[in-house]
Amino acid sequence: MINVTKTFLPDQEEYLQYVRGIWERGYLTNNGPLLQQLEGQLKEYLNVDYLYFCGNGTIVLQIAIKALELKGEIITTPFSYCATSNAILWENCTPVFVDIDAATFNINAELIEASITPATSAILATHVYGNPCDVEAIEAIAQKHNLKVIYDAAHAFGVTYKGKSLLSYGDLSTCSFHATKVFHTIEGGALISNHPELDRKLHLLRAFGHQGDEHYEFAGINGKNSEFHAAMGLVNLPQVPAIIQARKEVFEAYDSLLNWDILFKPTLSADIEYNYAYYPVVFPSEAVMFRVMEALKVGEIIPRRYFYPSLNTLSFMPRQIACPVSEDIAARVLSLPLYVGLPYEDIERISRMINGHLSP
Ligand SMILES: *Cc1c(COP(=O)(O)O)cnc(C)c1O
């Protein structure tokens, strides 16, 4: 069976060495030494000043919204994982969906201003598949209308844009280190901040909002992560350049094998160093996509409809807002298997099966 992804597992002995250290110290969680060590290494690797390692990539979205004290409406993208809009709902704000650009699949910055109202407090956009949003245009709109900007950068680990970490754009960026992501800590996430003045607040929000047993400042949450998760990060982080290189090879193999007269994929920005996080392909119609999916399934190959459905169509959204481009792409996109160690023969086989089922 070949799945859309396969979790990278590092050398077991290296991980166990860290675990033995945890046993010796008897210190399992709460801002422990391994967590601090990982935060230091991540800041260095990503070249960012303020980074908070947290429980997962969803709680960091919630903490970001809380930290910036957002209220009312938040402009967001319908083409993302449900965690993006769910976090907005959990923070009692209203997601206002703005359609995506048909070439990049990121929020269409040209459509944002028409959706701004007096109730708008922020823009929360996803760097889809690790491909940067139009960060300059979004920054200009945010300045003009006095809005905050949060990027869901769950896909963007290690991506640089114009020579800078993509995570350093916006007021806050969030990352997921879930087992399925390019860099993982089993479960985990991080908040990346460009605001020194928020440092204390972000530390407190992550850990219940109090310092010691005397000093309760506000209602924080449990966004912490453990020494075991930090250990997985410490073992995996040095492997990231090799992981990205191996993913690049799979990515380029698909590039050379698939039938681009019929298929298409999002256009990557020219100004990036990419992390090869996903391999999405868009089929001519949903019917063709289903036919390909069936054929792959017979060969025990399981791609993923990612992202599907377009989030604006979810029944529990407080407002139904049409996003025709996002709905169209979501209906006919598949992310193909992409992971370290996927053999070239399998990439060839998958590509052959896809190319063989494309007639209308
Ligand atoms: C994975 C992902 C998340 C959620 O991250 P978790 O660590 O699983 O909570 C949020 N947004 C996007 C775009 C993701 O891909």
Automatic annotation (TrEMBL):
Mark the residues carrying the PTM N6-(pyridoxal phosphate)lysine: K181
Q: Where is the active site?
A: K181
UniProt keyword Transferase present: yes
Please verify whether the record's keywords include Flavoprotein.
Answer: no
Q: Which UniProt keywords apply?
A: Aminotransferase, Pyridoxal phosphate, Transferase
| Gene Ontology biological process terms from the UniProt entry | polysaccharide biosynthetic process
Give the domain of life.
Bacteria
Query: One GO MF term, please?
Result: transaminase activity
InterPro entries linked: DegT/StrS_aminotransferase, PyrdxlP-dep_Trfase, PyrdxlP-dep_Trfase_major
Checking PANTHER family in the record gives: PROTEIN RV3402C, TRANSAMINASE
As for family, the record states: Belongs to the DegT/DnrJ/EryC1 family.
Name the UniProt record assigns to this protein = DegT/DnrJ/EryC1/StrS aminotransferase
Q: What species is this protein from?
A: Dyadobacter fermentans (strain ATCC 700827 / DSM 18053 / CIP 107007 / KCTC 52180 / NS114)
